[in-house]
Structure formats: structure tokens, C-alpha cells
Specification:
Elements lengths: L8 H12 L6 H17 L6 H12 L10 H12 L9 H9 L4
Helix pairs in contact: 1-2
Length: 105
């Protein structure tokens, strides 16, 4: 994740999910990557800790529902929204409420 893409709490959580659930990384590498992610996020002004990330990742891992998957068509549409700054990520309900309060018209 580039620093430009770590602008919000949701961006950091999304990056953490990709790290944590990467089957190619051993637990030590995951810990190292999450520490580095939090450092980059803090430099970008996102107030988050590794403990907070781990709590959210554990909650996600222990959820009784499967992760959402999208077809390549949907993913392509999401990319277009993102390219035009029309993608508003969120990871907790409070962030969703904050984002929807500021939607462009």
C-alpha cells in the first residue's frame, strides 16, 4: 500500500486484511507487515494501533458469515468509482455514517 492510499481508517483496515489473510506469510512476517502498516498510517495522520487492527481482524475471522466476493465486472466498476474519487470505503458503521454525511451531490 502506498502512503497515498492510507488516508483513512478503512484504508488501513483493508490493507491489514490483505496482509493478515495472506497465506504466503508466516505469523512473524504478518506481525512485521502490520507494524509497518501502522507506522505508515500514523505518518499519514490515521490514528490506529496494531492492537486495534488485530481486534478487528479477529472479529472478522470469527464471524459466522463468509467473506464477500465480487465478479470481475463488479471489481472493474469499483475501480472506476475509485479512479473518479467516488469510492468511499468504511470498516465500521461510524465511518459509514461519517462518509455518507459528506457525499458529493
Amino acid at each position: 500500500m502506498t502512503a497515498r492510499k492510507l488516508e483513512s481508517h478503512a484504508d488501513v483496515v483493508s490493507a491489514a486484511v490483505n496482509i493478515y489473510f495472506n497465506g504466503d506469510l508466516d505469523p512473524e512476517a504478518v506481525e512485521t507487515e502490520l507494524d509497518a502498516l501502522v507506522d505508515r498510517a500514523r505518518r499519514n495522520g490515521v490514528d490506529i494501533s496494531v492492537d486495534e487492527l488485530m481486534e478487528q481482524l479477529d472479529t472478522r475471522e470469527n464471524a459466522d458469515r463468509d467473506a464477500v466476493s465480487y465478479s470481475w465486472v463488479h471489481l472493474n466498476e469499483f475501480r472506476l468509482f475509485e479512479l473518479h474519487d467516488r469510492c468511499f470505503p468504511w470498516s465500521i458503521p461510524e465511518e459509514l455514517r461519517d462518509v455518507t454525511d459528506e457525499l458529493p451531490k
